[in-house]
Design a protein that fits this description.
This protein is an alpha+beta fold. The protein is 30% helix and 22% strand. The strands form 7 sheets. It has a 15-stranded antiparallel sheet that branches. It has a 3-stranded antiparallel sheet with strand order 26-27-28. It has a two-stranded antiparallel sheet with strand order 16-17. Strand 13 and strand 14 form a beta hairpin. Helix 11 packs antiparallel against helix 12. This is Glycoside hydrolase family 15 protein.
C-alpha cells in the first residue's frame, strides 16, 4: 500500500469510474460498468494486480492537483529539477465504448516521462495476451479487450508482463494516451481524438454545472459533492451507486470490508432531496424512476439494495488472491446484505415518492398502486425484528429507526390521501397504523431515565440514526425527548467531536469483531439535529469541520478516524456527499450567524 485513501481522485464517464493516485497511478478501474471486474486492482493488492502510472522519471507524488473548473477532469502537476509537466486525466461521456484518456503536456523546461501499463482482468487475476495491431497495443483475455495508443506514437516495449514507455516533453509539447475497452469478439473500436474529447468533456461538465441553482455559503463544496453524485450515477438507468469501490476497510487491517458498487434504497429520500434542492430535476426524476422499476413486484421481495439496472441477485464472494487494502481482508465481491430484512426501506421508499409528488415531479400512473401494495405488506410485518439500517450481521432486533420509518410509511400515505382525496386508499386505516407505531416506539424505544431514544427495544445502546427523528417528523425538534437524544448521542457516540453510528465496544451489535471510524453522514446528521434544536452556531462549526475533512480535491470516504486523521471505508461515498449537500442547503436557509 503506497497511497492513503484520501490520496485518490475520481474520474469517470457516468457508467464507471477510476481512482487516480497522487503518484499518477490509476489503481482502480472496473470495465465496462461500476460493478464489472476490475482491470486495475492495485488499490486492493499490489502492482501485480494491475495499474497504469504516468509520471516524471523517478518522481513520487505530484506537486499539486485539482479538477479543472466545475468538472471531473483532473489535472496533476509535477515540478521537477529539469522542468514542469502536467497530466490531464479524464473519461469522456461514452458513445459506446469506455475510454480513459491521459494527456501529458510540458509546461516548462524538458521532463523525461515514464509510463507503465499493467493490465490484469478479473480483479487482478488474469494476465492478458498482448499484441500489436493498427498502431495499438492490444490486450485480450476472454470477453475483455483493451486497446492502447498514443498520439504522437511513443516507443513502447514489454517488460514483466507490462507495457512500458519513456518519452520527453518540452514546453508546449503534448503526448496523449487513449485506453479503450470493448468486447474482445468485436473489431477495433472507433478512434476518438483525445483533444477534441477533452474539449467536449469540459463543455459537458460546464453545461451540467450551470444548472445548479445553489449560490449560498460553501458553494464550492456543494458543487463538488453534486459532481461526485453525478459521477456515481449509472447514466443508462439513473441508479446511483453508494461508491465505486469494494472492500476499502472501515478499520485498518480489519474485516469490515464491503462491496458498495450497488444502489441502496436507504439513500433514496436524502439523495432525491439534495438533487431537487440544487435544481437537478432530471437527475431526481431518473433516480425516482430507477427506484420504481427496482422495487416493482411482490412487496414481500423488496430488497435493501439493487444492481445498477435493478438486478436483484448480488451474491457475495471473497477474492483470496487480493491481499486487501493495508492487509484488510477479506476482499468481497457482491453483498450478502441484499438478503436481509430491513423494514426501514419501506418508509424510505414511501418518503421518496411522497417527496417526488410534493415537489412536482411528473407522476407515474402506477406509483400509488405500488405504494399501497408496499404499505399493505408493511402493515403485517412492522412488528417483526429486523437487521436495521446498518445491516448488522448479528441477531435481528427491534431497531428503533426501523420502527420510526414504518411510522413514516404510514404517515406519508395519510398525508398523500389527505392532499389527494380522489386517490384510492383507506386513510383511517393508515392513521390507526401510524398511531400504533408511534405509541409503541415512544413506550418501548425510549429510555426515560437517560432521556433518550435507544438503538433497539430494551437496549441501553444508542444509535446515530435516531438523530433523524425530528427530520422525518416523528417528533418536533423542540420535544424534550428529541433534545435529550441529540445530547446523549453526542456524549456517548461522539469521538473528537464527530459521531460514530453506534458503539462497537464489547459485544458488538453487528456481530463483527473490531471497530470502525466515525461515520461522516452521521456527523452531518448531528449538524442537522443541532440546527433543528436551535443550536445553529454549533451546527455551523461542526459543518465547517466536516467540510475541512475532504481531501485536496474535495472528496469524502464513508468514515474518518480522528486518531490517525485518515479517511476510511469505500471512496468516494455518495451518502457522505449527500449529507454535505443537505446540511449546507439547510444551514443556508437559516439567518446568517451573528
Amino acid at each position: 500500500m503506497t497511497q492513503r485513501i484520501e490520496d485518490y481522485a475520481l474520474i469517470g464517464d457516468l457508467q464507471t469510474a477510476a481512482l487516480v493516485g497522487r503518484d499518477g497511478s490509476i489503481d482502480w478501474l472496473c470495465l465496462p460498468r461500476f460493478d464489472s471486474g476490475a482491470c486495475f486492482a492495485r488499490l486492493l493488492g499490489d502492482e501485480n494486480n494491475g495499474h497504469w502510472r504516468i509520471a516524471p522519471m523517478g518522481a513520487r507524488a505530484c506537486t499539486r492537483r485539482g479538477y479543472l473548473g466545475e468538472s471531473l477532469v483532473l489535472e496533476s502537476v509535477w515540478e521537477t529539477r529539469t522542468g514542469t509537466v502536467r497530466v490531464v486525466d479524464f473519461m469522456p461521456h461514452r458513445d459506446r465504448c469506455p475510454d480513459v484518456m491521459r494527456i501529458v503536456e510540458g509546461v516548462s523546461g524538458r521532463v523525461e516521462m515514464s509510463a507503465v501499463l499493467r493490465l490484469r482482468f478479473d480483479y487482478g487475476s488474469i494476465v492478458p495476451w498482448m499484441r500489436r495491431a493498427d498502431g495499438h497495443r492490444v490486450a485480450i483475455a476472454g470477453p475483455d479487450s483493451v486497446w492502447l495508443r498514443s498520439e504522437p506514437q511513443v516507443k513502447t516495449w514489454g517488460q514483466q508482463y507490462s507495457t512500458c514507455s519513456s518519452f520527453t516533453v518540452g514546453a508546449g509539447e503534448k503526448v496523449a494516451f487513449v485506453l479503450t475497452w470493448h468486447p474482445s469478439h468485436e473489431p477495433r473500436p472507433h478512434l476518438v481524438d483525445p483533444h477534441e474529447a477533452l474539449a467536449h468533456t469540459m463543455e459537458d461538465w460546464k453545461t451540467w454545472a450551470a444548472r445548479c441553482t445553489y449560490e449560498g455559503p460553501y458553494r464550492e463544496a456543494v458543487m463538488r459533492s453534486l459532481i461526485t453524485l453525478k459521477a456515481l450515477t449509472y447514466a443508462p438507468t439513473g441508479g446511483i451507486v453508494a461508491a465505486p469501490t469494494t472492500s476499502l476497510p472501515e478499520e485498518m487491517g480489519g474485516v469490515r470490508n464491503w462491496d458498495y458498487r450497488f444502489c441502496w434504497l436507504r439513500d433514496s429520500t436524502l439523495t432525491l432531496g439534495a438533487l431537487l434542492s440544487a435544481g437537478y430535476v432530471d437527475e431526481a426524476a431518473a433516480w425516482r424512476d430507477w427506484l420504481l422499476r427496482a422495487v416493482a413486484g411482490d412487496p414481500a421481495d423488496l430488497q435493501i439494495m439493487y444492481g445498477l439496472a435493478g438486478e436483484r441477485r448480488l451474491p457475495e464472494t471473497e477474492v483470496p488472491w487480493l491481499r486487501g487494502y493495508g492487509g484488510a481482508t477479506p476482499v468481497r465481491i457482491g453483498n450478502a446484505a441484499v438478503e436481509q430484512l430491513q423494514l426501514d426501506v419501506y418508509g424510505e421508499v414511501m418518503d421518496t415518492l411522497f417527496l417526488a409528488r410534493r415537489t412536482g415531479l411528473a407522476g407515474q400512473p402506477h406509483a400509488w398502486a405500488l405504494q399501497l401494495s408496499l404499505l399493505g405488506f408493511l402493515e403485517s410485518t412492522w412488528r417483526q425484528p429486523d437487521e436495521g439500517l446498518w445491516e448488522v450481521r448479528g441477531p435481528r432486533r427491534h431497531f428503533v429507526h426501523s420502527k420510526v420509518m414504518a411510522w413514516v410509511a404510514a404517515d406519508r400515505a395519510v398525508r398523500t390521501l389527505e392532499a389527494n382525496p380522489s386517490l384510492p386508499g383507506d386513510v383511517s386505516r393508515w392513521r390507526a397504523m401510524r398511531d400504533e407505531v408511534h405509541r409503541e416506539v415512544c413506550e418501548r424505544g425510549y429510555d426515560p431515565v437517560r432521556n433518550t431514544f435507544t438503538q433497539s427495544y430494551g437496549s441501553a445502546e444508542l444509535d446515530a440514526a435516531t438523530l433523524l427523528i425530528p427530520r422525518v417528523g416523528f417528533l418536533p425538534a423542540d420535544d424534550p425527548r428529541v433534545v435529550g437524544t441529540v445530547d446523549a448521542v453526542r456524549a456517548e457516540l461522539g469521538h473528537d467531536g464527530l459521531i460514530r453510528r453506534y458503539s462497537t465496544d464489547g459485544i458488538a451489535v453487528d456481530g463483527l469483531p473490531g471497530g470502525e471510524g466515525t461515520f461522516l453522514v452521521c456527523s452531518f446528521w448531528m449538524a442537522d439535529a443541532l440546527r433543528m434544536t436551535g443550536r445553529v452556531e454549533e451546527a455551523r462549526e461542526l459543518f465547517a469541520r466536516l467540510v475541512g475533512l475532504r481531501n485536496d480535491v474535495g472528496l469524502l470516504a464513508e468514515e474518518y478516524d480522528p486518531a490517525s486523521r485518515r479517511q476510511l471505508g469505500n471512496f468516494p461515498q455518495a451518502f457522505s456527499h449527500v449529507g454535505l449537500v443537505g446540511t449546507a442547503l439547510a444551514l443556508a436557509r437559516e439567518h446568517p450567524a451573528g
